[in-house]
Write a structure and sequence with these properties.
Elements (H helix, E strand, L loop, with lengths): L2 H10 L7 E2 L10 E2 L9 H13 L4
Antiparallel strand pairs: 1-2
Length: 59
């Protein structure tokens, strides 16, 4: 699944999660970037569950 597609799904969901599509950076990197410095305690678990659901086809 393309990083851009996962990013679109994260942004469209509730809560909206904004990630950087690292394939568009120069130099490019595979995957998404989620900057943990902006997260509050426990929000990382929400992100993990949403990404897991999207990648498993359940989200």
């Amino acid at each position: 699944m393309a990083a851009g597609h996962v990013n679109d799904r994260l942004r469209a969901g509730t809560p909206s999660i904004v990630a950087a599509d690292m394939t568009k950076f120069r130099p490019s990197y595979p995957g998404l970037g989620i900057f943990a410095g902006y997260l509050r305690e426990g929000e990382e678990k929400v992100i993990v569950e949403r990404v897991r659901a999207i990648l498993s086809g359940k989200g």
